[in-house]
Every structure is written in structure tokens, then in C-alpha cells.
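Entry for the shared binder. Reason: the reviewer on the internal report wants the predicted structure included alongside the sequence.
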Amino acid sequence: MHVGIVMGSDSDLPVMKKAAEVLSGFGVTYDMAIASAHRTPKKLEEFILAQEEKGAACFIAGAGMAAALPGVVASMTLRPVIGVPLSGARLDGMDALFSIVQMPSGIPVATVAIDGAKNAAYLAVEIGAVPEFDGNSMKTQKLEMIPVECIVRGYITGSGWESYKKDGTICGIRLPEGLEECEKLPEAIFTPSTKAPVGEHDMNISMEEGEEWIERTFPGKGKEYMERLRDLTLALYRKCADYALSKGIIIADTKFEFGLDKEGNIVLGDEMLTPDNSRFWPLDGYAPGKGQPSYDKQFVRDYLKENPGDVLPQEIIDKTIGKYVEAYELLTGEKF
């Protein structure tokens, strides 16, 4: 049996070596590589192809709190992919939770299992030892991604608030007068952007512009795909936002990405509802008319804005961990 292990940075090596040690104990061969999904995608693709040629039973992919690398690996191979959260091992609660929350009917989910490095290795051994999975892992599938960032906003904040103050709109959508910062919108709105090639900036687009954008990649499918993306995005947001709200957390906004499987079905892919692509606010103490405390990366971002060029002090790191632990316990009802 052979396993491919990949991580985005050499700083991840101490954690990922624990997976290698477990595999060695079972006599499993492995190769390790450092390849970033964003900085060195070609190197990542070459590593995956080389491992498949060696007969890799699966891949173990390490990633930071957004867990993006496992999703990218899953898009490049039909082998099982096991994700390992890094750069703060206690920050994986929301990724893990929302990957198993029941989705609206008709939306298949392409995602990865998330666990620590040692358990990832044990799972890899189990996957290679049996012909089928035993329920502790997820089968993944390769998707042809649709180049649209499917952004949904339930509350008015961030760039949406700045746009509204200028002309009363968000991405061309006219909103009621008199809204306050962070106020809940009458209805969640779909505000897509382009998924630009590496090195280029994403751009906000209307439904009509989205249809034209998709036509470049999928001729004749622009209108059909944009309407389907809008409907799926709003359905997903409502389902997850209602669940989180019942547990004391507001999902102010988020984004999803979709792709086509080999039968041409639109499938949810990549990361979803992570602290990197969403705004999470505590319901307790929520009041419109001002900025809100957050469970997402905004806490760290605010500190860095006030202290540009500074290295994150341990106090801020500990507070960030505390916020994620609190969110996990609210959402699951279990002690972390």
C-alpha cells in the first residue's frame, strides 16, 4: 500500500510527520511533498499524478484553518482525500461541522474528511485495507469547476455596506432606504463575482454578466447555470443560516463554489462555510447600527489593520482559538 502526503508549507512538516510515522508503523510506503494550491498548482498536480502512477490508495492533505488544499487535491484525483487542519489544530470545528450538516435535497456534496495527522494516517490504512469505505471517510469526485464565486448576503456589512451608503445598492441590487450597518436584509441576496484566473482580481457581476462569463467556458449554458447557481446558493445559505441561528450564531454572509461531475450535474465543491469565506457573529448581543464581534478571520484582520506589519502576539492567537472553541461548542452542543 502507498499513500501520498502533501502540505502547503514547510512549517506544516512537524505535524504531517506524525502521519508518516503511523504509516511506517504499518509498513505503508509514502511520499511527502510541499506544494501550495495557490502558489505552485503545477507542482501539486504533478505530485498527484506521480502518486497515482505509484498506485496511491489515497492522499493526506494538510491545510490551514480554511482547509482549502484538501479540496483542491480532491478536484484533481478520484482517490480518497483526507484533510488535516493545520496552523491551529483547534480551529477545525466549523469546517468539520458544516461538512456534515444535512444539505437541501438535490445538492450532492464534494468534500473531505477532517481529522488530526495521526488519525488521518490510521484512516488511510483502513481505506487501503478494505475494498469499500466503512463510514469513517468520504468518497470524493473530480469536478469541472464553474468559474463563479457564489456569494450570498443575509446582512448588510463589509463592502456591501460601503456600496449601500454610496447609492443604495449592493452589486446593482436596489435595497430599501434607511438600512443600518449589519442589519438583516429583508431577504438574502445573491451577489456573484467572477472566479478569475490566478494573478487576476475577481469582479462583482450581475446575473446577466454572469451568464456571459459562463458562456466563455460552457457555451449555451450561461443562463441555465447562473439560475441554478443562484437557487442552490440561496437554498444552502437558508438551510445553514437557520441551523446556526438556532444555536446562537449568525451567518452574515458566505460564498460557495460549484462544479460539474462526469454526468454533468452541478455539485457543491471546494470549501464551504469556513471562517475564511464567511462572517460569523454571536447572536447574543447582536444589534444593528454598528460593527459586530466575530467568530471568523475578521478578528485577526481587525488587529492587523490597527497594527500593520506586526507579528500576531500570543494573546491574539489565544483569543482567536477561544473564539473558535466557543463557536464549536455553540454549534454542536458538545464540549470541545
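Summary line for the report: Residues 88-115 have pLDDT under 50 and may be disordered.
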